[in-house]
Design brief:
The complex is a heterodimer of chains A (139) and B (646). Chain A is mostly helical and 139 residues long. Chain A has five helices and no strands. The chains are: A mainly alpha (139), B mainly alpha (646). Chains A and B meet through helix 1 of A and helix 1, helix 8 and helix 14 of B. Chain A: Keywords: Membrane, Transmembrane, Transmembrane helix.
Chain lengths: 139, 646
């Protein structure tokens, strides 16, 4: 039965990200291509909505982020930061692209921090990060 | 070779989608029960997953791709078809709970087992298995073919239609063969969400590329001014006594009603029953049918897909969805790719479930009981896996090598499925339907449906018998003709045959339903009102009353100023009927308590000792009888074609 709950939770998470992820990628691309910052903002909002949706699914199934999920999320954010930084340094990005990238990075990091702060309290949020790294990521 | 942006995004979304389905198929296979029960997942799937999977299967890519094209070609009378989600939901609300309860009581794992056990007739096992095979091979082949061609168009010729069709088939096969029915059901929920989002995306794209809702309606008003286009904005009467619907010059309300019945037939198919029996409990039936199917998908169909069709009508396009996606791909390939794979998800929701249901029907419900009763479960599962491969191969070969045959054969799947309705009504409600009446009625219904559709006409023509009618005579869909013959036969035979053979099982069900279905006094109070409302809705929404939509909300040909709601009157009528339909489904599901769960555990009846099979090993006598029957039928057809055919 535990495996059933795992599958159930996973399907719900994938359905959530399948929709919000596609919307986020689509609107971010649309905003950057058309140089329309409001469209990019819709994409950023969709990414944040996907994160919030993931939290709701977790709460509904009485789970927290698994190590794999947390690792994947951190890796995705790191990748976004890396690609954005390299692109910014290597070529002259248009204003809309720069603002889109910055907004996305800030929104993703802020969402993560707000989650930790609401779950563990502001002070504990920092110690959670330190504690995770100190204990090899185990909670 | 340089890839275009559209190709890159198709590859990117396709890769992510395949990775996700493969990952979850493997997770499902790793479950202990998943490996043991490849061909079914009885009582194992969460109710909410089944509710979503049923909705996705009911719509599939069939309606999503077909409805806009119907509207673009035949006009807003095709919008009446978008209301088919309400009859679908009404059917689900009226039968699903009782099917699930009866299945739990009798320990049934499939429609074949349920009906064969209740009616004590092996004929239902063959009927149900054959029907599931038709869905898995022909109905899936039609959608495969359309989606393959669409992928070729969207990739700008980067991939030819035939390899694209093979690729789509392989994508489905790869997760079905690993995860079995549990994976098909579980991923059905994911595919339902993706399909819903895809339809929303299609509607937004149509609205955006059409210049906004007001501009689209202004263009429609301009079209409506031309008397030559009048047929696009009105239903062309109640019924037309012509040889075939193709000669009618437009949709009549009789055609809309009978086609809605055909579309609702998917809810009576073996695939729907097997998904339903996979649910752990019956708690999500009411919500699934009311809010997911009738409200959410019904709204998307009657507004979103009709909007896509309206844009196709303005552009004089016969392929509304394809043209829209090609235009979208030119500017926003990421959205085009995402919507395309949402359509693929809709196709897979039906194809995956139907191929395993068919494999189960052929192996567990036909081969094992009739030909090899002592076959062990592991070998049966292995044969089931081989069956899945063979069925999918047949489907893709039909789609690529004989697309015309696939279309005419696939068109029979829904009207054939609708012929199971009276038998299911007998199981759920009408205990006076005798076993021979249900079986013979279904057989006569199938024959009538076949003979009033293009496939049956072509077969008759092949053997030299030229029937004096065309496809869908008197503008009534073959499902309607089949159901009329089915019900008439069933009534006559029920009147003249005793109920003896089903009596004990009917009594078991009577006792079960009486115990579980005792409704509150408040529910009894709304009963007559609800059924009156259902009849009134059927008359006005999909019945003869649909012609009121021609003029009730404005003059169809009078232009924008004459349209009371600023949109074509018939479309506005359909939207109003959809809203009333949702209220009706809610009333029947919740207030009448026809689909709400009683929250009681159902104990399976003791079906008695299975008994030792009379023959060990292969039942050669049965196999001989089958081979002689098939050879005889083949010889007869060949002789007739040789003597009378062209």
């Amino acid at each position: 039965m535990d495996t059933d709950r795992y599958v159930e939770h996973g399907i719900a998470v994938f359905a959530n990200w399948g929709v919000f992820g596609a919307i986020a990628i689509g609107f971010l691309m649309e905003g950057v291509t058309r140089e329309a910052y409001p469209l990019s903002l819709v994409g950023v909002a969709a990414a944040v909505a996907g994160f919030v949706g993931h939290l709701i699914v977790n709460a509904r199934f009485g789970r927290t982020f698994s190590r794999a999920e947390a690792g994947l999320g951190l890796a995705a954010v790191a990748l976004v930061v890396l690609v954005f930084t390299v692109s910014w340094l290597a070529s002259s990005l248009r204003d809309t692209t720069v603002w889109t990238g910055l907004t996305l990075i800030v929104a993703l990091i802020a969402s993560g921090f707000v989650y930790l702060a609401t779950r563990f309290g502001v002070r504990s949020a920092f110690s959670q990060i330190r504690g995770r790294s100190g204990r090899g990521g185990r909670r | 070779m340089t890839l275009t942006a559209a190709q890159i995004w198709l590859i990117a979304f396709g890769t992510v989608y395949v990775a996700a389905t493969s990952f979850w198929a493997r997770q499902c296979a790793l479950r202990e029960a998943g490996t043991r029960r490849f061909l079914s997942a009885t009582g194992e799937l969460p109710a909410w997953i089944v509710a979503l999977a049923l909705a996705a299967m009911s719509l599939s890519a069939w309606i999503t791709l077909g409805l806009p094209d119907d509207v673009a070609r035949a006009g807003f009378s095709g919008a009446g078809l978008a209301l088919a989600t309400i009859p679908m939901a009404l059917l689900g609300v009226a039968t699903f709970k009782r099917q699930w309860q009866a299945g739990r009581r009798f320990g049934a794992r499939s429609q074949a087992q349920l009906l064969a056990f209740y009616y004590r007739s092996r004929g239902f096992a063959w009927l149900s298995g054959g029907l599931a095979t038709l869905f898995a091979v022909a109905f899936a082949a039609v959608q495969l073919s359309v989606l393959g061609r669409l992928m070729a168009d969207l990739s700008g010729g980067g991939i030819a239609p035939e390899p694209a069709t093979w690729l789509l088939s392989l994508m489905t096969f790869s997760y079905v063969i690993v995860g079995g029915f549990y994976a098909a059901g579980a991923l059905g929920a994911l595919q339902c969400v993706l399909l819903g989002a895809g339809i929303v995306g299609l509607a937004i794209a149509a609205n955006d590329l059409g210049g906004g809702f007001s501009a689209i309606n202004a263009a429609l008003a301009k079209l409506a001014h031309d008397p030559a286009n009048a047929h696009l904005f009105r239903v062309s009467g109640v019924v037309r006594f012509v040889a075939g619907a193709d000669d009618a010059g437009g949709w009549t309300s009789a055609l809309v009603l009978s086609t809605a019945l055909a579309l609702a037939g998917v809810q009576a198919s073996p695939i729907a029953t097997q998904l339903l029996l996979s649910a752990r409990d019956d708690r999500a039936i009411a919500a699934g049918q009311t809010w997911v199917l009738a409200a959410f998908f019904g709204g998307l169909c009657v507004f979103g897909l009709v909007l896509v069709g309206a844009c196709g009508m303005i552009a004089s396009s016969g392929d509304a969805v394809g043209d829209l996606l090609v235009r979208l791909g030119a500017g926003s390939p990421w959205f085009m790719a995402a919507i395309y794979f949402a359509l693929v998800a809709g196709f897979q929701a039906l194809a995956a479930a139907s191929v395993i249901t068919a494999a189960r029907g052929l192996v567990r419900d036909i081969f094992v009981p009739d030909f090899m009763p002592e076959l062990d479960g592991r070998t049966a599962n292995l044969i089931g896996r081989i069956c899945v491969g063979v069925l999918m191969l047949a489907s893709v070969l039909l789609a690529t090598r004989a697309p015309a045959a696939a279309v005419s054969l696939g068109a029979l799947a829904l009207p054939f499925a609708a012929q199971m309705l009276p038998a299911l009504a007998g199981l759920c409600w009408l205990r006076w339907i005798s076993p021979p009446a249900a079986l013979v009625g279904a057989a006569i219904g199938l024959a009538t449906a076949a003979l009033t559709d293009s496939f049956g006409l072509a077969v008759m023509d092949f053997v030299g018998l030229h029937l004096p009618w065309g496809r869908w005579p008197w503008t009534i869909h073959s499902a309607g003709w089949g159901l009329a013959a089915n019900v008439a036969t069933m009534l006559v035979i029920s009147a003249i045959t005793p109920l003896r053979r089903a009596n004990q099982r009917a009594a078991t069900l009577n006792e079960l339903f009486a115990g579980l279905g005792a409704s509150r006094p408040a529910a009894r109070g709304v009963r007559s009102m609800a059924w009156s409302a259902a009849l009134a809705w059927a008359f006005l929404g999909v019945g003869p009353g649909l012609v009121f939509g021609n003029f009730a909300l404005g003059d169809a040909g009078g232009g924008l100023d004459a349209w009371l709601l600023g949109m074509p009157p018939l479309w506005a009528w359909c939207l109003a009927m959809w809203a009333l339909g949702v209220i009706l489904v809610w009333l029947i599901a919740y207030k009448l308590e026809l689909a709400t769960s009683p929250g009681v555990d159902i104990v399976a009846v003791d079906r008695g000792p299975a008994g030792r099979p009379k023959t060990r090993g292969l039942r050669v006598d049965h196999l001989e009888a089958l081979l002689w029957t098939l050879s005889g039928a083949g010889a007869l057809i060949t002789a007739m074609a040789w003597i009378f055919g062209h």
